[in-house]
Amino acid sequence: MFIRLKYTVICWLISVISLTLANPAYSEQPLVKKTLVRSGEVFKEIQTLNQLQLPKTNASYLWRVPRQNDFPELSQAITDVVLVTDVQVNSTDKGIELILVTANSQKLQVLPKTEGNSYIADIPNAKLQLRSGDFRQSKPVAGITEVTVANLDANTLRVTVTGEASAPAVELFDSTKEGLVFGVTPSTFTAQQPTTEPEKPIELNVTAPPDTNYRIPDATTATKTDTPLRDIPASVQVIPQQVIEDQQPRNLIGILKNAGVIQNNFSSRIADTFFIRGFRARNVYRNGVKDRFAAGAALSSSLTNIDRVEVVRGPNSVIYGQVNPGGIINIVTKKPLSQPYYAIEVRRGGYELFQPSLDLSGPVTKDGSLSYRLNTSYRTAEDFTDFYNEKRFFVSPVVNWRIGKNTNLTFDSEYEDIQQSLGTGSEQIASATILPNPNGKIPINRYLGEPTDFFNRQLNRYNYNLEHRFNDNWSISNSFQAAFLTLDLRETAVTSLLEADNRTVERTQTIFPKPTEYEAYTIDTHVIGDFNTGSIKHKLLAGFDLFRQTQSINILRRAVAPLDVFNPVYGQPLGDTFGRLDLYFRDDALGFYLQDQVTFANNLKLLVGGRYDLVENEFANRIASTASVQSDSAFSPRVGIVYQPIAPVSLYASYSRSFEQVTGADKNDSLFKPQLGTQYEVGVKTDLFDNKLSATLALYQLTLTNIVTTDPTDPDFDVQTGEQRSRGAELSVTGEILPGWNVIGFYGYTDARVIKDNDIPIGNRVEGVSKHVASLWTTYTFGTGSLKGFGGGIGFNYVGDQMPDNLDTYTIPSYFLTDAALYYRNNNFSIGLNLNNIFNVRYYEASFDYLQRIIPGRPYTAQLTVKWEF
Questions:
Q1: CB contact at 8 A, 307 and 335
Q2: Averaged pLDDT score across all residues of the chain
Q3: Left if phi > 0, otherwise alpha if psi is -120 to 50, otherwise beta: which for 254?
Q4: Of the candidates 666, 633, 85, 110, which has an alpha carbon nearest to the alpha carbon of residue 406?
Q5: Gap between the Cα atoms of 58 and 55, Å rounded
Q6: Is the Cα dihedral 103, 105, 107, 109 positive or negative?
Q7: What is the pLDDT of residue 290?
Q8: What burial letters (b/e) apply to 433-451, b meaning 16+ CB within 10 Å?
Q9: Is 471 left (phi over 0), alpha (psi -120 to 50) or beta?
Q10: Cα–Cα distance measured from residue 121 to residue 111, given in angstroms and rounded to the nearest whole number
Q11: Rounded distance, CA 488 to CA 515, Å?
Q12: Cα–Cα distance measured from residue 498 to residue 198, given in angstroms and rounded to the nearest whole number
């Protein structure tokens, strides 16, 4: 029945969209000029669409509408950005009261206009700073369909109130206790003032809904401060919630492909580990806090409560301490909303995917000081690999307490239970897939382990974040996370292929006699301050963080009967136990960091920072009764400059460094030094189409030194003389091309080479790194007419060939995939169909080094998503 329903929906959506080949008509209404006067001074003529109606107000000083370049004496006032920390909507006898909560509403500059049924007020010196992102409330009272408050760009806030029949009447009030107050009266409650109507009625609302834009103007990951992306001397890309909604990926790597991040040598069904700029990236953070369990040994992260993902390329030790040099991945989760919101979503797709989920949020108390959010989901699925199945349950409650006007406390936690039937996914061997084999090729669904293999995980995270603003210029933030991970595993893995027949593989089985346990604790405290030294502005960041992780690992290995990959016989008797490990690890890190964002002029900015770290690693072999402790320290600098010759263009250059501890010693018992990543980068950023589309072009050279390689004088020991270098160019584009037409794209060229080593030939390519990576995803949503709410998207993903090991023994071929989506969204209801790998391309995502084990990619799949919002 589901198959019939799936194809019925496909045909229905395709038929409706194919009936319309032209865009809806669009034209502009005549411009009507108004003049605003304050204290007898004419500020400027304003041109608006339709007739501008200025409501009466008891706060006339708020109507400031100058253009900054026309009045230099007001430039400083306009560029002082006022933070809006909360948005409240209260019912009144006339309609609603919309409150922008801020510490100083008298500095706000308000530019009002009307468009169709909407009252729009742009505030060019304000910024919305909600952890939940933009504010939106549908149908607060009769006569008003929607209220939105959103950041139009880095320094401009837009308030939009849309009426049912026509634009509402609005009065402005200023409250020293609350902030800026919009008194909104729907048109159905008051007589309409005469307006100048055009000769023919024209529908002006041609834009997509306000929450469908792909462009995010600022991010916190690169600097730990709310900084516009155009002012950051680094390549930063944000994948917003709307992209995730449109693409409906199954895992984190499905989100990150939009940023050119490719999978490392682990199956995406098991773990999320990545390559960025030619180096492995285990640097996954959650709301800016180190999250060791989002990648590596942990399973693929749940997407249920993810709001957006930020990717900062290059070394970032100055902010985050011990990291890989490729880049930082920061997962930003959903936070409580100040207005009630309820959503239920059901996903049904190929390979028996079934996933219902709930998203509930709203205030707990009448004054809204206490609010909550609850995200939960349950998923069952199979896959194209034999014997595979999974069950996972996820729940994440969040509570936000606005203790006072300047103090905010957020508690959140996550629990995830994942049970699946096999260990390392659908690994296969190169000799029976991409390399010639006289016996032919094995089917893509062939599993080379045992049907009884399993890999289970239980994860608990507990977090809090406390923020306090001393005043408009100084604030402090304290974050804490405690995470606990339990793993249980039985995995049968290939160790070699017998060359005698090219069809039999040797295997071993790994078992956890008792579950492996991980614990991690992270605390971060920092102060942010804005101050001036003469005409020079500073944004100072000073803080420290403390991290501890412990691991208790108990492993048992035994022999398993060989397997004929072309005619497998499973369930043969197990062999003898030949190895056991009982290990304990402890990693401690303490870091102090200082950063200053200096503004010499509106178009010239400097970023300079430094960090000092103390790290310690303890290793114990409980069976051999041996232990070792190694301590290291490192200083990590960063400096960057941004010059903006014209407002939409930013030119930048930067130098940064990272470090990562290397444990062990050489033959003279000298402890190894940390690996150092050093990067030089230049680039250009630009905002196009009235700041709706952003693009970044970056060129870089990144070198990793102190790599361990064999000691040429004694092969039983190692020395730190190895080096690898990555040079490349990257282009990313994100935003809106035309109303309703969104795009996110990336192209990366990476030339990663071994430049010093005693084992690997100089000049060889770094394993697992593709020279060329490209992705493009674009959607169009009809904003008007009979097709309003219908839309579709198409995406392409290209990954060039890669080497499975540094010896360049063979090549994993490149691949080109095509995805598509069709959807309909109408107010609180949406339905979408996603088609992935629609041409059913056979491809391989990653490899397991010298063992010649490779991971095939998922064939064609379809997925239907239905969502209701209340």
A1: yes
A2: 83
A3: alpha
A4: 85
A5: 10
A6: positive
A7: 83
A8: bbbebeeebbebebbbbbe
A9: beta
A10: 5
A11: 5
A12: 82
Q: Which string of DSSP letters, residue by residue, matches 398-428?
A: EEEEEEETTEEEEEEEEEEEEEES-SS-S-E
Environment class of residue 501 by beta-carbon count within 10 Å: exposed (0-12), middle (13-18) or buried (19+)? exposed
Residues 6+ apart with CB under 8 A from 707: 675, 720, 721, 722, 723, 724, 756, 757
Pairing mode, strands 853-856 and 844-847: antiparallel
Look at 422 and 795; give whichever has higher pLDDT: 795
**φ, ψ at 493 (rounded to 5°):** -125, 150
Amino acid letter, 58: N
DSSP class of residue 565 equals S
Helices (H), 547-684: none
Instruction: Look at the alpha carbons of 244, 249, 254, 258 in this order and tell me if their dihedral is positive or negative.
Output: negative
The CB density around residue 143, as the number of other CB atoms within 10 Å, is: 20
For the entire predicted model, the pTM comes to 0.77
Which phi and psi (to 5°) does residue 2 adopt? -65, -35
3-state secondary structure (DSSP) of residue 822: strand
Sign of the C-alpha dihedral computed for residues 285, 467, 527 and 239 taken in this order = positive
Looking at residue 86, its pLDDT comes to: 81
Distance, CA of 260 to CA of 279 (rounded, Å): 13
The H-assigned helical ranges of 248-320 are 252-256, 317-320
Cβ count near 690 (within 10 Å) = 10
Dump pLDDT digits (tens) for 540-551. 999 999 999 999
Handedness of CA 286, 855, 819, 235 (dihedral sign): positive
Residues 683, 698: contact at Cβ < 8 Å?
yes
Backbone angles phi, psi at 406, to 5 degrees: -115, 5
| Tokens, residue 669 | 């018992």
pLDDT band at residue 40 using 50, 70 and 90 as cut-offs: very low
Residue 862: closest CA among 240, 1, 9: 9
Q: Which residues pair with 869 in a beta bridge?
A: 343
Q: What are phi and psi of 294, to 5 degrees?
A: -85, -10
Closest CA to 327 of 276, 292, 290, 288: 276
More confident residue, 189 or 624: 624
Task: List phi, psi (to 5°) of 835.
Answer: -120, 120
Q: In whole angstroms, what is the distance from residue 849 CA to residue 223 CA? A: 36
Give the whole-angstrom CA distance, residue 354 versus residue 380.
5
Q: Report yes or no: 605 and 598 within 8 Å, Cβ to Cβ.
A: yes
* pLDDT top residue among 202 and 734: 734
Query: pLDDT tens for residues 847-857?
Result: 765 567 788 88
Distances (CA, A) of 99 to 96, 183, 469: 10, 9, 19
Q: Hey, is 719 helix, strand or coil?
A: strand
Residue 102 near residue 83, CB atoms below 8 Å: yes
